[in-house]
Amino acid sequence: MSKPDSITLALSRRLLSRLEPWRAAVAWRVAFSGGLDSTVLLHLLAELARVHALPPLTAVHVNHGLQAVAASWPVHCRQMCQILGVPMEVIDVQVRPGASLEQAARDARYAAFNSTLGPGEVLLTAQHRDDQAETLLFRLLRGAGVRGLAAMPAQRPLGAGQLFRPLLDESRATLEAYAREQGLSWIEDPSNKDSRFSRNYLRSHVLPLVTTRWPQAIASMARSAAHLAEAQQLLDELAMQDLALADTPCPWPWLDMPSLELAPLEALSPARQRNALRHWLAPLTRLPDTDHWVGWDSLRDAGPDGRPIWRLADGQMHRAEGRIWWLSGIWLKNVAGSQHWSMASQPLALPGNGMLQILGAAPAGGLHVHYRQGGETFDVPDRGRRDLKRLLNEKGVPVFLRGRLPLLYRGEQLLAVANLPGLDASPRGDWRLHWLPPTNDQSLS
Predict the structure, then answer these.
(1) Final residue belonging to a domain, choices 164, 196, 231
(2) Where is the Lysidine-tRNA(Ile) synthetase C-terminal domain (predicted)?
(3) 229-240 per-position pLDDT tens digit
(4) Is the pLDDT of residue 443 over 50?
(5) Is 37 annotated as a binding residue?
(6) N or C: fewer beta carbons within 10 Å in the chain?
(7) Which of 374, 370, 373, 367 is nearest to 338 (CA)?
(8) Which of 415, 402, 398, 426 minimizes the C-alpha distance to 353?
(9) Which residue among 231, 264, 293 closes a domain?
């Protein structure tokens, strides 16, 4: 017969072993809801800290305010932290209503963790093997791909630090046994019994039925998630190899905008194209579902005179001059109007369009900055007066960029077009019009 403390000793040893790579972290922060899982994790860590040199430990409680009963939870959590001698931070969040309350609450929670995590710090969360199986099944029913079916990674970057799930290989039964052995008390969230929420339905109705017929189903599904995570790692490595061929220098180095050369992508099979683009788009936007990838086919296969745009959740992909370009944030808003430049020796802030400056001795006279309206002409040395549209065509300027290029006027005379060699300077070469475009704002990331 096992000793009464066998579960405690075995679980403590396994946890300490998994945490070994993170022992040099600046601090450990524990996501502490007060429920069973996070209570066990916090208790384990507090006990380990008594006999081992560990990073400073802090509990972080996120208060969603979704239920009246939740008002008492921070009090319970503070009492538990006082008993364990662990400082605690409470973060109040507002959950934005949406199609899925579960997802909205999760988004709010991780946004809070993201904001509180400093450089070199690690957020420890208490998801376990049963959670992993539940996540795999939930995503499978939603038609997820390999990345989604890999379920929850053991670790990933979060904010300025890292997230680590040290209990991901432990069963819920093990955590319950530890809690009973230690005489712990925890919060029972009544919403966890509400089967209207998809995950609760899987947890309370589907998985118990499955494990009645296949007792090892939870462990098997968690193992499958690990296999899929390994497959996703291989797909990511393949994507990086393919993207390296397409990540060629942009013709306009001053244009700080994600772009890829199209030809190397077109040489790949359609499946490898999608794999590479998923990897490239992942930090830029929420990825499209299966049906929406027809937008990529249309963009890729458009004729040379086409101006295809693939509209995604958080931006747009454009095709121009043999490249694909990612536009988001401020780049999706039009610029217009004119500005008087009374002190041309000083940089000029362009509303919604970066900064403009004249390098060298600024030309005399009343200067104005305008944007293209159509019909502009420009005096080109040794070529005479030329239509600006034709000059932009000759230089291969993408259509999405043309309306943003600042034009410098003196009276009715167009003096320069910012950043375009041969059009951006005086004929004598004593000054040049330099534009610092706005950054490609990523609102999602």
Answers:
(1) 231
(2) 367-435
(3) 999 999 999 999
(4) no
(5) yes
(6) N
(7) 370
(8) 402
(9) 231
